[in-house]
Write a structure and sequence with these properties.
Elements: H1 2-21, H2 27-31, E1 38-44, E2 47-48, E3 59-62, E4 68-72, E5 77-84, E6 89-96, H3 104-116, E7 119-123, E8 126-131, E9 134-142, H4 152-166
Antiparallel strand pairs: 1-2, 1-3, 1-9, 3-4, 4-5, 5-6, 7-8, 8-9
Keywords: Signal
Protein name: META domain-containing protein
InterPro entries: DUF306_Meta_HslJ, HslJ-like_sf, Hsp_HslJ-like
């Protein structure tokens, strides 16, 4: 009986430790998929993304149907096609609108990176795109509602206030 008093607590600690450390190595792949998620741009080539005031969040979305990719660079909309494998990803026929932007260099870099991407990895809620084995862009998953691209009304309200404060009606 005394041996049982020592064995039972040991077994309980052992089972608890094993239960807390064993994970399905494909859990992230099961929870997140590249398709039909809104991926907000987090970093380009390891650098945090610049976001001027009153601009919108850059994002990318891989449509499940027709393999269409589309998104927003922070200033312009972009679109194209993609092919995806288990860890491979290739985008093609990329195009975009052509508005002048405060951070044109960042926008041009973003589009050039998308053109070079050849693979991807998802870890938890982060999508990392790779080119030649190097991480070139990182995104965080979200929903359409989490992309704060609806700043037009806020900007219009600010313009109305500024005009009213000057006395122009």
């Amino acid at each position: 009986m005394k041996k049982l008093n020592y064995v039972v607590p040991f077994l309980l600690v052992f089972l608890f430790a094993v239960g807390c450390t064993v994970q399905n190595k494909n859990q992230a792949a099961e929870d997140y998929t590249i398709k039909d998620a809104y991926w907000s741009l987090y970093a380009l080539e390891g650098e945090d993304v610049q976001r001027p005031q009153n601009t919108m969040t850059a994002f990318i979305r891989f449509q499940e149907n027709d393999n269409d990719v589309h998104g927003f660079t922070g200033c312009n909309k972009f679109f194209g096609k993609y092919e995806v494998g288990e860890e491979t990803l290739k985008m093609s026929k990329l195009g975009s609108t052509r508005m002048a932007c405060p951070l044109m260099e960042q926008e041009n870099m973003f589009m050039a990176i998308l053109d070079r991407v050849d693979s991807y990895r998802i870890s938890n809620n982060f999508l990392t795109l790779y080119a030649g084995g190097n991480a070139v862009a990182t995104f965080v998953s979200g929903t359409e509602q989490s992309i704060d691209n609806d700043v037009t009304e806020e900007v219009e309200e600010r313009v109305d206030i500024e005009i009213d404060s000057v006395g122009i009606y």
